[in-house]
Amino acid sequence: MKAASRGKAIVSEKSLTTTMADADRLAQAVRSADVFFLEGLMYLSHPLMEKVGEIIRSGRLGTIRSVSGSYAADIWKLVNPLGNGTIFNLGCYPVSLLQYVVQTAFGAEVFTDRVTRGSGNVSGHDGNICDAALLVRFGNGVLATIQSTDSYGMSFDFAIHGDCGVLRFRTNPWLPIAGENALEIQLYDGGAETIVVTSLYDAFQHQVMRVEECLRLGLRQAPRPSPRLSDSLEIMALLTTWEEHCRTTIPQPRHDPR
Question: Which candidate, 138, 112, 70, 53, places its Cα nearest to that of 237?
């Protein structure tokens, strides 16, 4: 908010904030100052995501019916406890990718028409949500399941299921590297294809280049697949709802040997 008041272009760390009230205040400050703003979901700036959008729009998967994703990283000792736990540390990645998929397949309005359920575990270390699961049913019938944890593991999974086939990430969708990143299309009639997206730069460098290009063009936000401010607010709305579900379904902190 201070940067916006001074007319600075802003790249914010993800997640946007840790409460919806803070997110709304941030958005108001950015809009009032009319400055460039981008939430640092850096992976959305990588060409890998443009390829995902191209595949969805091509119709090769048919009509999208469900999406599933998970992100696990044993980083609980490293993260700032003021970040409010796994939903905001890691869950923001599969949730933001889910949003991009749903918007690409069905339009901007569908993502907010949804019913959600969530549950999780509270860490005995800092009282934050350490393991979380989310189930979403969109108004058009598309289902999504998302999980995240920062208490164990080091793994990723994301799949987009259509009525003709499924698209899976064979490399980490949220940390695209400089070099080769891979997708796999498996059609239900037996056909399969591996798609390799090669780039000279990783996701962080692509985000830097995208911001520089936007500033050269005088834009106030980056084009999709990068998140617009309205996208970031929609992502935050789902993240905070997910956290509320978890808090209301956990009777007490689970046993935590840490």
Answer: 112
Coil/strand/helix, residue 225: coil
String of DSSP letters for 24-43? HHHHHHHHHHT--EEE--GG
Q: For residue 252, what pLDDT is reported?
A: 56
- 109/144 Cα distance (integer angstroms): 16
Q: Give the C-alpha separation, 45 to 202, whole Å.
A: 9
> How far is 258 from 256, CA to CA, in rounded Å?
5
Within-domain flag for 105: yes
**Confidence at residue 249, expressed as pLDDT on a 0 to 100 scale:** 83
How many helices (H) and strands (E) in the chain? 7, 10
> Are the C-beta atoms of residues 141 and 96 closer than 8 Å to each other?
no
Say which DSSP state 110 is in: G
* 24 domain residue, yes or no: no
Cα gap 108→182, rounded to integer Å: 27
- Judge whether 92 and 235 are in contact, CB under 8 Å: yes
How many other CB atoms are there within 10 angstroms of residue 249's CB atom? 11
CA distance 20 to 33: 20
CATH of the domain at 147: 3.30.360.10
Q: Looking at the domain assignment, is residue 194 inside a domain? A: yes
Please count the residues of the chain.
Answer: 258
Beta strands in 74-150 (DSSP E): 114-122, 129-138, 143-149
Cβ–Cβ < 8 Å for 70, 146:
yes
pLDDT < 50: residue spans in the chain: 254-255, 257
